[in-house]
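Worked problem 6 (solution included).
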Amino acid sequence: MFSVFLGGFDTHADQLATQADLFAKLSQAMSAFYEATRELGVSGRVTTYTDTEFNRTMAPNRTHGTDHAWGGHHLVMGGSIRGGDIHGQMPSLELNGRDDAGMRGVWIPTTSAHDYQSRFAQRFGLPGATSSLVV
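Solution. The predicted structure is:
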């Protein structure tokens, strides 16, 4: 098991420029890593995923950033992953709408990150890990 950190997503200011650079780095790194697993012939035994403890609000703040929120997205990839699926329900992106816990775009999640993490734990043979996801 490997863990790699990519910081800088705590974007309280100038979010668009900062995230454009960060997402480009993330995309390139995940692509290069996956290609390396394919070249080594182990892509079916390697799963890569993103994880974070919080998300950002949908509405910007006065410094062109966003504030802390929850209910974000995670990416999962690997040779044994059934791709193209979205787990949970996509929220309404309407500010102060049915899925907004406030007025600034704080998504109410429908699926816990622990749900997919427990599925990965099962792959390591940990007992008692349950999940409704199929990865």
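Discussion: The chain has a mean pLDDT of 86.
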